[in-house]
Design goal:
The chain is an alpha+beta fold and 269 residues long. Helices cover 39% and strands 16% of the residues. It has a 9-stranded mixed beta sheet with strand order 2-5-4-3-1-6-9-8-7, with helices on both faces.
Length: 269
């Protein structure tokens, strides 16, 4: 079958990044069954030929009106599709969608009529807000990192910036590669408008948001960077939990040590 990726190396590269990331999520145990979602804004790589492609699906409502997404294109993981399958066959387990002019509905244009994730309204609401703010971020990732989710079952880590401070202190790279820390959203029904709105609010101050007892949501300029932020945060959680399992409370980097690193590497304060 002729694919939308044929003779479009940049677009193919970005979709391949999604496939590679999906494989990492599965290998880490962060994507059980069909768990997790990925959505990337591919509008900047869409040419005139793609814009003329007919719909291969009916018109689907988004469930919200998102004015900044008018005419945008997204590659999305498919509903009830597994990350391990997305890794091997991205265009058979995902689809390219076009947001229609009413900003409240979309159609699938390629490669197969695989309906996107049921959490698409939440993802698109975030992308709408990113464009509203003029953000360069084009990728959103939702996954279930084991150690971070485990920490979210303890109320003390849900207080503002408590988890951030702890995770930054475990290893220098965490503050370097996730300099805005970890936002927190108290438990909210998955896929709900309330969860989307709470996530958008937290993304004003953070690039990665913990959904209590559920998972994390991350944004960045591409999907690999969004994954990297979650990966370094979860590595810190693993170090903390490993220390506790060895029978001691880890000392962590001091405030002075983290301040020094922030200044030397010119990280956000």
């Amino acid at each position: 079958m002729n694919s939308i990726l044929n003779n479009r190396p940049v677009l193919a590269r970005e979709v391949n990044k999604v496939a590679e990331t999906a494989g990492y999520l599965w290998e880490k145990g962060w994507a059980e069954r069909n768990g997790g979602n990925i959505t990337i804004n591919i509008t900047e790589w869409v040419d005139d030929e793609i814009r003329q492609m007919p719909a291969i699906s009916e018109v689907y409502p988004i469930g919200a009106t998102l004015p900044y997404l008018k005419g945008c294109y997204f590659f999305c993981k498919g509903n009830n599709r597994r990350m391990r399958d997305l890794a091997r066959w991205p265009m058979e387990n995902g689809s390219v969608i076009r947001i229609l002019d009413d900003c409240a509905s979309y159609v699938i244009i390629a490669d197969n009529p695989v309906k996107p994730t049921s959490e698409l309204p939440s993802h698109l609401s975030v992308h709408n807000d990113l464009l509203r703010k003029g953000s360069p971020y084009r990728a959103s990732l939702h996954t279930h990192p084991i150690e971070l989710v485990a920490m979210s079952h303890n109320p003390k880590y849900l207080e503002k910036d408590v988890a951030t401070r702890l995770l930054w202190s475990m290893i220098p790279e965490t503050k370097a590669f996730c300099p805005r820390g970890l936002g927190i959203v108290p438990y909210t029904l998955p896929g709900s408008v309330e969860l989307a709105n709470a996530t958008i609010e937290e993304l004003s101050d953070y690039d990665v948001v913990m959904w209590e007892k559920h998972g994390v949501f991350a944004v960045d300029t591409d999907i690999m960077l969004a994954f990297d932020q979650v990966d370094v945060l979860n590595k810190s959680a693993q170090i903390y939990i490993a220390s506790k399992n060895m029978g001691f409370e880890p000392e962590g980097m001091s405030d002075a040590q983290m301040k020094e690193m922030t200044e030397v590497f010119n990280l956000p304060k």
